Structure formats: structure tokens, C-alpha cells
Amino acid sequence: MNGELLSIDSAAFYNSKLKNITIPDSVKYIRGHGDNEVIGGVFCFCKSFENIIISENSLLAFIGYAVAQLTPVKNIFIPQNCMISLGAFNLMDNLTITIDPRNLHLKMFDNCIYSFNLNSLYWIPSYYQNNFTFNSNCHAIESQAFRGYRTNNDLVIPKEITTIKIDAFYQCLCRSIIFQNDMFETPNYNLFYACTSAIKMPEKLRVVKSSVFERYNGNSIEFYSDLQMIESESFINCSHLETIKFNKLNSNMIIDSNSFYNCANLQYLLFPFDSSDIITFNLTCLNRCTSFKGIKFYLNIPRNIMNFNADKKIIEIEMKASNSKGIFIDCGKFHIKNL
Questions:
Q1: What is the Cα–Cα distance from 135 to 69, expressed in whole angstroms?
Q2: How far apart are CA 61 and CA 54, in angstroms?
Q3: pLDDT tens column, 128-156
Q4: CA distances to 75, 229, 230, 243, 244 from 213, in Å
Q5: Whole-number CA gyration radius for the chain
Q6: Phi-psi region of 266 (alpha: psi -120 to 50; beta: other; left: phi over 0)
């Protein structure tokens, strides 16, 4: 193979005026951003780039990370023996992928890239046309699978999903991400970097681990489980986060040091009314939360609670709070009328 090109290295055509390229069949590696400590995918930021031509006879074995990020390339063919890096095709808004049917590493399903046995999701197009649903065999979401995914629909994570890799929802811009899986603990790494989607966490969740919401860019998160622990720096640097609502708390819950560190726009933590005596706040849990206004306790009253005959129907709620010495003092009362 003397004289034949075997590799196209990272940043080889970075930010160039390249429009079209035919990859020689001899090339085995198209390097990605960061390979060999070189910054930039091979074709990154080539704003006029339209076509990457790869033949069915190609010996290509690997396509690297962010290979043509932020380019208008419309089609890429993945040949027989080729594997891809996680995040290989992120931020390519117009891209359609075709995979050689002889490929034993990857498989297309519903315009998305999965592992050959369909148990791991690798990539979804940025502008996916329909409501996205996972293949029924899928159990894992790979790193950056939903990076740049844009839709006005909700993304539902079903119970079959048992593994979610780092940065799975990086820059995900769907309306909301609704977890319906059996997640008892979040991973201890970032899942939602620069994600703007509203987050609804699963009903079985008990522990929020460090870093999982680091630099999340949405403004609201809801928990629907009997949460017991929020670890230190779980929500660090969430600059757009305004409210976190807890919908069900039955057990003692600890909010650790610096849990919401530098969440500059966080205004309220919302808790069920009957959970006021089971929450323990670390003194530093709200460090650098410069917009924080306070804690709100909410009470849901059933519609049929006043289902009896009487001349007057009023609900009266008395409020008491303990002072620094642990002595309960009256804080007044309020009435709810005309239910």
C-alpha cells in the first residue's frame, strides 16, 4: 500500500473553503476533534462544504468526533467496516446518513443510528420530523446522541432505558425531557450541558449525584419521586435555572453543600406543604445564588373536600414556624373560600 493515503488527520481542512471531496478507498481513518491532541475535526467550520463522497469499496474503518461540525453537508455514507466516534456527526443540521447493509457495527432505524443489535442509540438528526420513539430493543443512550436535537415535542425516556452516557442531552433543545425509566440514582457526570429543555425526573429517583445538572440552561426542573439526597454541586453553574419543584417527599431529604452553587437566577425551591419537617439544608447549599427569593410550600386540596351540606364552607389553615431556639410561634392563618 506504499504511496496510498491511509489517514486524514484532525483539522486537515479546518475552516477552509472546501466544497466537495472524494475520500480515496485506501483511507482507513478520518480523524476527529481532539485526536492526537489536535483541535478541530477534519472538516469543521467549512461553511461551503456540500459533499463527502465515500464509495462502497472504501476501506474506511473509523470516523472521528465532530468530523464536519457546523457544515451544510447533506449526505454521508458509512461503508461496510466503518465504526464512528460518539458525537461524530453532531451539529450537522441538514445531514442524512446511509449505512452499508453489510456493516456489522451500526444500523439505521427510523433515520437514526443505532448499534448493530439496536440496543444503543448513537445519533438522531437535529431536525427529526416526527415524535421520537426509541427502538424497542434499545437500552442505552450514548454520549451526545441528542446533541443539537430541536423540536417542539416532548422527548420521553421509557422504562427500557437503563444506561445514559455522559452528555447524552448536550445542547438538546426539545420542549421537555420526561423520564419514565427506573432510575434510582442519577449518574455522577453531566447529562444536560447547555440543554434548554424542561426536565421531569423519574418517579423512582432517590439520589441526585454531583455534576449531573452542571451548566443546564433550562429554567425549570421537576422531581416526582420521594427524593432523599441532593449531593454537592449537583446544579452548579445553571445560569438560567429559576425554579425547582418537588412533587412528592415522604422520607428525610438532605440538600448538601453547594448543591445549587452559582445558579445566579434561581429564585424559588418549591416543596409539598407536608414535607417542611423532613428537609435538611446545608448552610452553603445556595452559595452564589444571588437572585434567590425563598422557599415556597404548596398545598393541593382535593376538589371533593367540601362535599357536604352546610351554610358556610371555609377552609382555615393555621401557620406556625420554629424560631432559632426551636420554639414554635404563630405566623397567622388564612382562609380558602368558595371551592
A1: 26
A2: 12
A3: 878 999 999 999 999 999 999 999 999 99
A4: 34, 14, 11, 14, 12
A5: 26
A6: beta
Amino acid at 31: R
Nearest Cα to Cα of residue 29 among 65, 53, 78, 63: 63
33-51 pLDDT tens trace? 877 656 778 999 999 999 9
Cβ-contact 60, 30 below 8 angstroms = yes
pLDDT single digits (tens) 196-230: 999 999 999 999 999 999 999 999 999 999 999 99
For residue 63, which of 123, 1, 138, 137 has the smallest C-alpha distance? 123
262: left (phi over 0), alpha (psi -120 to 50) or beta: left
CA distance 299 to 230: 23
Residue-range domain boundaries for the chain? 1-104
Would you say 218 and 240 are in contact if contact means Cβ atoms under 8 Å apart?
yes
- Taking residue 182's Cβ as centre, other Cβ atoms within 10 Å add up to 13
Sequence-separated (6 or more) residues with CB below 8 Å from residue 303: 339
DSSP 232-257: TTTTTT-TT--EEEEEE--S-EEE-T
- What are 208's strand-pairing partners? 230
What is the DSSP track for 16-64? ----EEE--TT--EE--TTGGG--S-TTTT-TT--EEE--TT----EE-
Chain-centroid distance, C-alpha 210? 15
